Amino acid sequence: MPNLRQFKYFLSHKKNSVQKDSQTWTTLLPMSRKQRLNDAGICVSHGDYFTAVRNFLEQDGSEIITRAVSQHMRREATSQEIEAINIFLEKHGEFYHPARIEAMLHGTVIPFVLNVAISNSGKNCIQREYGLLKQLNEDFLFSFLPKVYGQDCVSIAGNEFKMFLGEWFQGYNEFHISLDPEDEKYKIVVWDHEHGNYFLTDDQAINLYRQAARILTCYYNVKTFEQILSWHHAAGDFVLKCQNNRIDLKLITVRQYRPLFENDSGNENPDAELILEALLVFFLNLAIRIRLDRLDGVGEIVWSDDIAVEGTLKGFFEGLALKPPIVSIPGPLTDCFRNHLLSCSQSDLFGLSQAMVDAYNPQSPEIPVIKKNLKKHVKVLFSAIKQKQEI
Q1: Do 188 and 297 lie in a common domain?
Q2: 86 and 14 within one domain
Q3: Which of 127, 195, 200 has its CA nearest to residue 161?
Q4: Which residues face 162 on adjacent strands?
C-alpha cells in the first residue's frame, strides 16, 4: 500500500514551505556555516537534500521514524498514524546539515533531529557518533544527551547521504559570545529565533558554565579516564533553554569518547594516585576548553570572562559528587580530589596546564588565544580554588 502522508519542506524558521518548482529547490547547499559552496567537488541542491531526507524517513515502511514516535509516546504506534511530516533544514554545520523533523499524529506535533552528513568529514564521523551516543545513553543514567533511534544512508543524484535520527530538545537554542551594543561588553547571546535573541546575565552565564562542566564531568570515567573530547562552544555543541530566568543545558553531540592519555600502568584498576592525577588533568583541560568560543559562532576565536572559572569549578565538583565509590580511593572522591587540588601550588597548575596546551594540535587556531590568556587564567583558577575550600 503506497504511503499517502503529506511531506512539506522548510528552511529553518521560515513559515512558507519550499516548493519543488522554486529557485531554492535547485540552489546548491553551502557545505558549512562559513558558506563554502563545495567540499571536494560535492554539489548538493536543496532539493536533493529534502529528497534524501524523505527517502530516509520512508525506508522500510517508515520503520525508523515509527520506532522513534513509539518511544516518544511510550506506546506502540503505526506508520499509518503519522499523518504528515514537516522537514526543516536547520543549519549548515562543519560536519552535518541537521534537519528538524516534525511528525504529525492526531493533532500532536512530535519533533526529532535528523543529522545529515554530506561532506567527507561529516561522513567519516557520523557512524562513530551514533554509536557513542547510543553507548553513553546505555552506560549512564543521565539525560543530558539526545536519544538515538536509527541510522542509514541514502544515495541521490550520485551523492551519498549518511543520517541518524535522534531526540530533538524542544525550546533549546544555540548560544555564543557576542558584543552587547548597549554597554560594549562581551557576553553570551542566546540565538532564540522564536522569541528573539537575548544576552545572559552574569549569574546566568555562571550557571551555564556550571552546567556545562557538570555534564562533561558526569560522563568522565574515573577508572578508564575516558571522556567526551572534541566538543566546542564554537560548533554549538551545547544548547540552552531559559524559562522563568532559569537555564537548562544539554549536549547534543559526541564526536569522540576516549582517554586524553593512555593508562601506561597496565592496571585495569588504577591506584588512587593515578586516578587523582588523571582527574586533575581532566579538570585543568576542562577549565581551559570551556572558555573558548568563536565570536557570534563564526568569527575570531574568543576567550570568555573570568566568571567562567567560578561556574566550571562548581559544576565539576557537582558532577564528581555523582560518581560511584572507587575501591582504591579511601573516602569520598570529592574530598580526596579537593585535598589533592589544594596541595597543588599555582606554579604546579600552570606547569601542568602549559604542558597540556603544548600537546594540543599546533595548527589549532585556538593555541595563540589560550597561550595569551593562560597565565591569568591559572591565577584566577588558583584563587577560586583557595577561596572555595568548602566546595
Answers
A1: yes
A2: yes
A3: 127
A4: 117, 153
Mean pLDDT value across residues 74-91: 95
pLDDT, tens digit (0-9, with 9 covering 90-100), for 126-141? 999 999 999 999 999 9
Domain end point (choices 112, 142, 167): 167
Q: Is residue 1 part of a domain?
A: no
Element (H, E) at 377: helix 367-387
d(CA 287, CA 285): 5
Distance, in Å, from the CA atom of 293 to the CA atom of 234, rounded to the nearest integer, reads: 5
Domain co-membership, 119 together with 189:
no
259 lies in the same domain as 357: yes
Give the three-state DSSP class for 151. strand
Question: Hey, what amino acid is at 295?
Answer: L
Q: How many domains does the chain have?
A: 2
Distance (Å, whole) CA 103 – CA 160 = 24
Cell of 116: 545529515
Q: What's residue 89's pLDDT?
A: 96
d(CA 209, CA 312): 5
User: Whose CA is closest to 176, among 146, 150, 208?
Assistant: 208
**Does residue 391 surpass a pLDDT of 50?**
no
Residue 278 vs residues 209, 219, 261, 272: alpha-carbon distances, Å: 22, 14, 8, 10
Give this prediction's pTM: 0.92
- Shared-domain flag, residues 108 and 157: yes
pLDDT tens string 1-50 = 345 589 999 998 778 899 999 999 999 998 765 544 445 567 899 999 99
The arithmetic mean of pLDDT across residues 81-99, rounded, is 92
